[in-house]
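Notebook entry, structure prediction.
Reason for the run: the old model in the group folder had no record of what sequence produced it. Starting over properly, with the input documented here first.
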Amino acid sequence: MNTIEPKNVSSKTPPREAPLVVVKIGGAAGIDFAPLACDAAAVIRAGQRLTIVHGGSDATNTLSQRLGREPTFITSPSGHTSRRTDRETLEIFQMACRGIVNQSLVRHLLLAGVDAVGLSGLDARLWSGPRKAAVRAIEEGRVRIIRDDYTGAVERVDPRVLHALLDNHFTPVISPPAISEALEPINVDADRAAAQTAIALGAHTLVLLSNVPGVLRSFGDEDSIIRCVLRSGIGSLDEVAQGRMKNKVLAAREALEGGVSRVIIGDARVPHPLSMALEGAGTVFA
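New structure, fully documented this time:
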């Protein structure tokens, strides 16, 4: 039986004062964790500390379909798309994010030599915020009010457990869900959760990796990437960003307003996704 011997980069982990980068890895289809994990190990060896956040959209869709439940998405009046999350969907979401995606990503990081530790936003109330009392959705041109949805937003990040891990040369890997004020699990947008995590940790850079090369001026045309966006010009992207990219642009705005120096929306499909993003590939907000 062939085995893969894990590398070890612990002896070359950066000091506590090394620059901190928060990386959000998208949950869409087509993202390979193996090259990303090897690249993360290279970035750590080069002297940067990482905290990783991930989503689980594709894994949740796949698991839902295997369980005979077709995924449902809703669009808000402002154009933001999110998963319709009733109680049963929430349970599937938790199984997919924490039980499948998080453990798979941690395993790939361990194989690459990174001392990764998997967490969810529930652990130690790491991510917390209010559950929405009602969700407004556009259906057939009309606004519908949904009251049994388990969604919310991360308004508070308790960084103590993250600092404890980082100070001891571990790399945190964080999965949704978050926890509500009533101690209920809630589905939250992982891009915006990553932005709040970067703010709470005082990170220098936030990298949002997805299955597109960056913000596209023309939807679907990957050659129309917008390379640089000044803080003063983020509002101009409101009409350009489509679908899930709206959430990433909003996350970039929130991170910059919270003190993060730089945000990059980059391509997770390339051979060295994190290194390339940190070198400026993608859409850079500064």
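Summary: The longest strand covers residues 20-25.
The old model has been moved to the deprecated folder.
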